[in-house]
Design a protein that fits this description.
single chain; about 425 residues; alpha+beta; 4-stranded antiparallel sheet; 3-stranded antiparallel sheet; binds acetyl coenzyme *A
Length: about 425
């Protein structure tokens, strides 16, 4: 029998098998304090069990704060809505990575440095054209992240501050180029070079959608929406992909290898891949006549593999603040493009049903960031398979910031969880003829 009692001196007492033990508490500035249980194994011979790490803080972090019950998200203390409405993606990247908003001069210098590095080596362009046309973009993107490091060995050090800053700039700059190349290579279109005179997001849209040598002017409403979407995706504390980035980096793997691991983790449909899964789901409902009632019945009956994609979140037990902003943006973009999409009606219908239905209310399932993003990306001209690479493009500064924080943290150790062994006890090998 184990008992936990907090004391005002920021320690907790645990009684484990009749032994009284005291463990320190790490106080949070906001949110949950943490009990430091690292010495529990040495003290008691027991480990903690927490599948899915639902109750485990793997680190202390100063980057992002989420209050899942209140639907709050802040980067470095700044509310997400203020950043989405007032900042740019590169400025937010700077904030996440360096901890403070840049001065006017720092802002310009950072943007210029990133933009100037948009070009990739010619061999890298060739490499980007060698994947099969039908390859999933996330697989291509993860391979590209790994390959990127091989082209810039001078930026591979995990301890030299200048090399890390260079890698930071190179990754932000070249992920944009890579994402546009993934889009074009899938269509057999020529890969375009960056245009330094344009902004990060504007030139991303040009590199993605322009015809070679043809004049291209991006729709300002689309540029603004893309800027906002990238900001909304820029960090989300210790989710699956970010934890993957940190744990890979904790083995002293270089930053490119860690980013590639993050891309792979993000690709799963329970994580970043959900934006793609939402569109597949909406298409299916539309193909069946647009009536969501039958689909919702299947969700609530928990038919294998049927979930309301884009709903639910490990941390948010309230409306995901990002989803609210994305929903507004979806209306703005469709309006500015003079487009309409029957799937937006279906999505809003699903949300309306879910928010009034006891199955979803009792489980605190609300729309997450992925529920409406796909509709915007579709309206902009992206294929469904490109949605998760766009998420990865946005998440890059967050992963970089978390990787850098992890490297600087004196408490960082190689990530190595324990297990409870439940397999066979010792037995002797039986030669094949005797089996
Ligand atoms: N549709 C229907 N039921 C759901 C959904 C959903 N989208 N999400 C959770 N539930 C139900 C579960 O069946 C479970 O029901 P039960 O208590 O009767 O067994 C309960 O809600 C709790 O769900 P868990 O899966 O235990 O919650 P967990 O925190 O492990 O999972 C997750 C969170 C993976 C996001 C889940 O809600 C989900 O699968 N959502 C759909 C996929 C999705 O949109 N992912 C994107 C998340 S945001 C992001 O990663 C960027």
């Amino acid at each position: 029998m184990t008992d936990v009692a907090a004391t005002p001196t920021q320690t907790v007492r645990l009684s484990v098998r009749d032994r009284e033990l005291e463990y320190p508490v790490v106080p949070a500035v906001e949110g949950n304090d943490g009990i430091v249980v690292a010495s529990l194994l040495k003290d008691t011979g027991m480990v903690t069990v927490d599948p899915g790490f639902t109750n485990t803080a793997s680190c202390e972090s100063k980057i992002t704060y989420i209050d899942g019950d209140e639907g709050v998200l802040r980067y470095r203390g700044y509310p997400i809505r203020q950043l989405a409405e007032g900042s740019t993606f590169l400025e937010t990247s700077y904030l996440l990575i360096h901890g403070e908003l840049p001065s006017k001069e720092e802002r310009v210098a950072f943007a210029e440095r990133v933009n100037r590095h948009g070009l990739v080596h010619e061999d890298f362009r060739t490499f980007m054209g060698t994947f099969p046309r039908h390859a999933h973009p996330m697989a291509v993107m993860a391979s590209a992240m790994n390959a990127l490091g091989t082209f810039y060995p001078e930026s591979l050090s995990i301890s030299d501050e200048e090399a890390i800053e260079l890698a930071t700039v190179l990754i932000l700059a070249k992920t944009r180029t890579i994402t546009s190349y993934v889009h074009r290579a899938r269509r057999g279109e020529p890969l375009l070079y960056p245009d330094y005179s344009r902004g990060y997001v504007e030139d991303f849209l040009r590199m993605t959608f322009a015809e070679p040598y043809a004049q291209y002017e991006a729709n300002p409403a689309v540029v603004a929406a893309m800027e906002k979407l990238l900001i909304l995706h820029a960090d989300h504390e210790q989710n699956c992909s970010t934890s993957t980035v940190r744990i890979v980096g904790s083995s002293n793997a270089n930053i490119y290898a860690s980013m590639a691991a993050g891309v792979n983790a993000l690709g799963g449909p329970l994580h970043g891949g959900a934006n793609e899964a939402v569109l597949v789901m909406l298409d299916e409902i539309l193909a069946n006549g647009g009536d969501a009632t039958d689909f919702m019945k299947r969700v609530k009956n928990k038919e294998p593999g049927v979930r309301l994609m884009g709903f639910g979140h490990r941390v948010y037990k309230n409306y995901d603040p990002r989803a609210a902003i994305v929903k507004e943006s979806a209306h703005e973009v469709l309006e500015s493009l003079g487009a309409s999409d029957p799937r937006l009606e279906i999505a809003m219908g699903l949300e309306e049903i879910a928010l009034a239905d006891d199955y979803f209310i009792s489980r605190k399932l609300y729309p997450n960031v992925d529920f409406y993003t796909g509709l915007i990306y579709k309206a902009m001209g992206f294929d469904t398979a490109m949605f998760t690479p766009l998420f990865a493009l946005g998440r890059m500064p967050g992963w970089i910031a978390q990787w850098r924080e992890m490297r600087k943290d004196p408490q960082t150790k190689i990530g190595r969880p324990r297990q409870i062994y439940t397999g066979s006890p010792k037995r002797d090998y039986v030669p094949v003829d005797e089996r």
